[in-house]
Design goal:
alpha/beta, Rossmann fold, Rna Polymerase Sigma Factor, Chain: A, 7-stranded parallel sheet, 5-stranded mixed sheet, globular
C-alpha cells in the first residue's frame, strides 16, 4: 500500500460521497479534531439540502454534485446565504474534487463504479486515498496499485474489514501469512430457508441487524455480495492470492477480521460496530486519535459466535471464485451485474434470489480478459451494463 505520508499539523481532505453514511461519519471525526483536519472539497449525490448544510458548516473551497440540476439548486441556495463556493457537476466535478490542489488526502466514499474515475485521478495526482469505494479495487485493483506506486501515493483501507486486516498485518512479514479471514455479520437472513429468501422484500433487505449503511451496501450485505466484493478488494489491497482469503460469519460484528499466520497465531482487530473507528484510523495513521466514543466491553457482551459461511444459501461466495477465475473481466462483470440487479430488486422488478441469478448468468457469458488502461475497463463495464439494459435485466 506504499509509505503513508506523516500527519501534518492540519491535514486537508477532499471528501467524495459526503452525504452518505461514510461521508457523515468522516465529517463527524473531522469536526471532533478541527486543529488536525480541514475539508477543502465536498462531493455529494442528489441530497442537495444535506450537502448545503455541510458546506455551511465546513466551508470547503469547492463542491461537486451528481448532475446539473443539483448544481443549479445548490448555486441558488449558496447565493441566498451569501456563500461563494464553486460548484461543479457530473463526473468532472468528482474528478475535480479528487484532484483538488490543496488536498493531502482524498476520502473516496462514493458508492458503485462511479467512484473509479475520481479514485484513479486522485492517485495519479499523487494523493493518498482513504478508500471506502470497494468497487474501484474490484474493477481495477491492479491498475490502481500501479498508478499509486508510480505516483508515490497510498491506498488506505476504510472498510471495517480491510482496516482490521491492515491493523492485524501491521509490522508483520507477508511471508508469514497463511490466510486472511474476512468476518461477515451474515445480514438479516442468515437463518432463513431458501423458501423464505424467495419471499424477501426490499424493505426487509434494507434492515441490517448491526450496521447503518446506504441502501446498496445494505442489500449487498443481505446477499453477502459485499463479502464477495471484499474478497477481490483484499486480494489487491494486500497482494494476497484469492485462495488465501476466507469468509467467517460472526453475527455480533465485534471481530472485524483476522489474519492467521504460519505458526498458528491468529491476530484480530476488535471493536464496536462503529464506522468512525476505521475512518479515524485511516485519517490519523500512523497515529491513533483519542476518540470519545463508546468503548468495547467484552464482559458485557459475554460471548462471540462464529459460523462457516453457507455458500449454498449465499451463492455470491461461489460466484466470486468464478469471477476471479476469469481475471479482470470477471471481476468487472460481477460488480456491474450486481449493481444493476440490486437496483432492479429495489424497484421491485426482480426477486431477492434473482440478484445472484442475474450475476451468474452474466458471468457465464464472460470470457477471460485482462485490461491495462482505465478506458478499457470503463468500456467493458459499460458494455456489460448495456447488455443488461437491452435484456431488461
Amino acid at each position: 500500500m506504499g509509505d503513508v505520508k506523516l500527519l501534518r499539523k492540519c491535514k486537508k481532505i477532499a471528501l467524495l460521497g459526503a452525504t452518505g453514511s461514510i461521508g457523515r461519519n468522516t465529517l463527524d471525526i473531522v469536526s471532533r479534531f478541527p486543529e488536525r483536519y480541514q475539508i477543502v472539497a465536498l462531493g455529494g449525490g442528489r441530497n442537495i439540502p444535506e450537502l448545503l448544510e455541510q458546506a455551511k458548516r465546513f466551508q470547503p473551497n469547492m463542491l461537486a454534485v451528481q448532475d446539473e440540476s443539483g448544481a443549479d439548486e445548490l448555486n441558488k441556495a449558496l447565493k441566498q446565504l451569501g456563500l461563494s463556493i464553486p460548484v461543479i457537476s457530473g463526473p468532472a466535478g468528482a474528478v475535480a474534487a479528487a484532484t483538488h490542489p490543496e488536498a493531502d488526502l482524498v476520502v473516496a466514499a462514493m458508492v458503485g463504479a462511479v467512484g473509479l474515475e475520481p479514485t484513479y485521478a486522485a492517485l495519479k495526482s499523487g494523493k493518498d486515498v482513504a478508500l471506502a469505494n470497494k468497487e474501484s479495487m474490484v474493477m481495477a485493483g491492479r491498475l490502481l496499485n500501479e498508478v499509486a506506486a508510480a505516483n508515490k501515493a497510498s491506498i488506505l483501507p476504510l472498510d471495517s474489514e480491510h482496516s482490521a486486516l491492515w491493523q492485524a498485518l501491521n509490522g508483520e512479514s507477508k511471508k508469514g501469512v497463511k490466510k486472511l479471514i474476512l468476518t461477515a455479520s451474515g445480514g438479516p437472513f442468515r437463518e432463513f430457508s431458501r423458501a423464505q429468501m424467495e419471499a424477501v422484500t426490499p424493505e426487509q433487505a434494507l434492515c441490517h441487524p448491526r450496521w447503518e449503511m446506504g441502501p446498496k451496501i445494505t442489500i449487498d450485505s443481505a446477499t453477502m455480495m459485499n463479502k464477495a466484493l471484499e474478497i477481490i478488494e483484499a486480494r489487491w489491497l494486500f497482494d494476497v492470492v484469492p485462495e488465501k482469503i476466507e469468509v467467517l460469519v460472526h453475527p455480533q460484528s465485534i471481530v472485524h477480521s483476522l489474519v492467521e499466520y504460519l505458526d498458528g497465531s491468529v491476530l484480530a482487530q476488535l471493536g464496536l460496530p462503529d464506522m468512525r473507528l476505521p475512518i479515524a484510523y485511516a485519517l490519523s495513521y500512523p497515529e491513533r486519535l483519542n476518540l470519545d466514543l463508546p468503548k468495547l466491553n467484552l464482559s458485557e457482551i459475554g460471548r462471540l459466535d462464529f459460523f462457516a459461511a453457507d455458500e449454498q444459501l449465499f451463492p455470491a461466495l461461489q460466484l466470486v471464485r468464478q469471477a476471479l477465475g476469469k481475471g479482470d473481466s470477471g471481476s468487472i462483470a460481477l460488480n456491474a451485474a450486481n449493481e444493476i440487479a440490486v437496483e432492479h430488486f429495489r424497484l421491485g422488478r426482480i426477486g431477492f434470489l434473482e440478484i445472484a441469478e442475474t450475476v451468474a448468468r452474466v458471468l457465464a457469458e464472460v470470457e477471460q480478459r485482462e485490461f491495462t488502461t482505465l478506458n478499457e475497463i470503463l468500456a467493458f463495464d459499460a458494455g456489460i451494463r448495456q447488455s443488461l439494459a437491452d435484456a431488461g435485466c
